[in-house]
Amino acid sequence: MIIIVKQQAPETKLNELIHNLEQQNFKIHLSKGENTTIIGLVGDTSLVDIDNIKAKDIVEDVRRVSEPYKKANRKFHADDTVIDAGGQLIGGGHFAVIAGPCSVESEQQMLEITGDIRKSGANFLRGGAYKPRTSPYAFQGLEQDGIRLLLACKKQFGIPVVTEIMGISDIPYFEHVDVIQVGARNMQNFRLLKELGKLKQPILLKRGLANTIEEFLMSAEYIMAGGNENVILCERGIRTFETFTRNTFDLSAIPVLKNKSHLPVIADPSHAAGLNWLVEPLSKAAIAAGADGLMIEVHNDPEHALSDGKQSLTPHTFDDMMKRLKAYMELEGKQIG
Fold first, then answer.
1. Which residues contact 192 (CB under 8 A, 6 or more apart)?
2. Which terminus of the chain has a lower count of CB atoms within 10 Å, N or C?
């Protein structure tokens, strides 16, 4: 349930209303936008007397929220959420370009790629330290050493880092990581999501391979219900009958998520396509659809990459693409950072 408060409502009366609702054992989510103040009630609202609340002179309207996700729901928070991640803003017109290799492989590789993507305009460095792989024999990542190399790049180039977490036991190693990524395979690892809800760092949550949009938003709700409301949603393609691309890029998910939720939404065209030549057109489409950012795989030697070389751009190709994408960002009123 949400209570829409009239503009210019006295602070004392607003606080009094909130106190009365808390006395009824509701959890309160207060959202103050530029033009609207919304009180969100989380709990069993079936016995709430709506007419009694509407009768209060500071209340504009009362509406029941049918969707099971509350904190992630735009009805609870009319304005776009803007997230500060390592000094870079995401959402509300602030665009994120997250670039880097699928896997952290070596110090030389990371320093070279970081310098290149920084010059091209990327404002986040991505790299997998822990790698979930379909085959147990494939490269699994450098783990703690990979995080150490990412943080060294962060220090040298002044760029925030994004890397994926695999399990609860690894949380202590992510203390200085700017954005913690939850991969598609862990989207419904609810125990992990609950623990991440106790942190302050932004969480980049990827949609599962075969999950609905509502299931995706419910996973975000797990994190937010724990107290961490800094969640970034990422559409990375879903599994369908089509085999030409690695996944099917669900472009419609971007405007749907923007309509249903106030959280920032980014796109990962690299994983969606699995083919480097498709990354640019899908990036353009994502920007036009309203995305708040892109996650792009860039490798200095894709042919010899230890993972996902086929979908990785070279630094030169990435630089050329960024020059063209900036015009699309401007058309959509977006600016990097």
1. 165, 167, 168, 182, 186
2. C
Q: How far apart are CA 105 and CA 305, in angstroms?
A: 8
Count of CB atoms situated within 10 Å of the CB of 111: 15
Q: Which of 223, 213, 162 is nearest to 191 (CA)?
A: 223
The tens digit of pLDDT for each residue in 304-332 reads: 999 889 999 999 999 999 999 999 999 99
Say what the pLDDT of residue 24 is.
Answer: 87
Which CATH homologous superfamily contains domain 83-336?
Answer: Aldolase class I (3.20.20.70)
What CATH number was assigned to the domain covering residues 2-63?
Answer: 3.30.70.1140
Smallest CA-to-CA distance from 181 within 205, 153, 201, 147 is with 205
Do you know the residue count of the chain?
337
Distance from C-alpha of 191 to C-alpha of 193, rounded to nearest angstrom = 5
Q: How far apart (Å, rounded) are the C-alpha atoms in residues 199 and 182?
A: 14
